[in-house]
Design brief:
Protein name: Winged helix-turn-helix transcriptional regulator
CATH architecture: Orthogonal Bundle
CATH topology: Arc Repressor Mutant, subunit A
Organism: Streptomyces lycii
Helix content: 55-70%
CATH superfamily: Winged helix-like DNA-binding domain superfamily/Winged helix DNA-binding domain
Pfam families: HTH_5
Number of helices: 5
Structural class: mainly alpha
């Protein structure tokens, strides 16, 4: 059965989000538990401005959502199945070949 265009677009959007190591780290961190931006920035060792740009990309891609919590805003994965998908993808890639790198690893494109 042929994959329809919307399916391809969704996978491409997910792939673009995963193309940046910082966004991968954000998703893997949120896979463990929801977090506040200040906590994420500290945990990842990046500026809040840089984190904000990556979170905006992940929100635009539909992978993370904001949850109001009083005067603060918490981030979490848009769907718990994304955490499972990240685990499955990581495990599958590691099972295939652990010493390969992508030729386009330096490409910095957002969703």
């Amino acid at each position: 059965m042929l994959t329809v265009a919307p399916d391809i677009e969704v996978l491409a959007r997910f792939g673009r989000a995963l193309a940046d190591p910082i966004r991968c780290r954000i998703l893997l961190t949120l896979r463990e538990a929801p977090a506040y931006p200040a906590e994420l920035a500290d945990a990842l060792g990046i500026s809040r401005t840089r984190l904000s740009n990556h979170l905006a990309c992940l929100r635009d891609c539909g992978l993370v959502v904001t949850v109001p919590d009083g005067r603060r805003t918490r981030y979490e994965l848009a769907d718990e199945r994304l955490g499972h998908a990240l685990d499955d993808l990581r495990t599958a890639v590691v099972a295939v070949d652990t010493d390969r790198t992508c030729a386009d690893a330096d490409t910095k494109r957002c969703c």
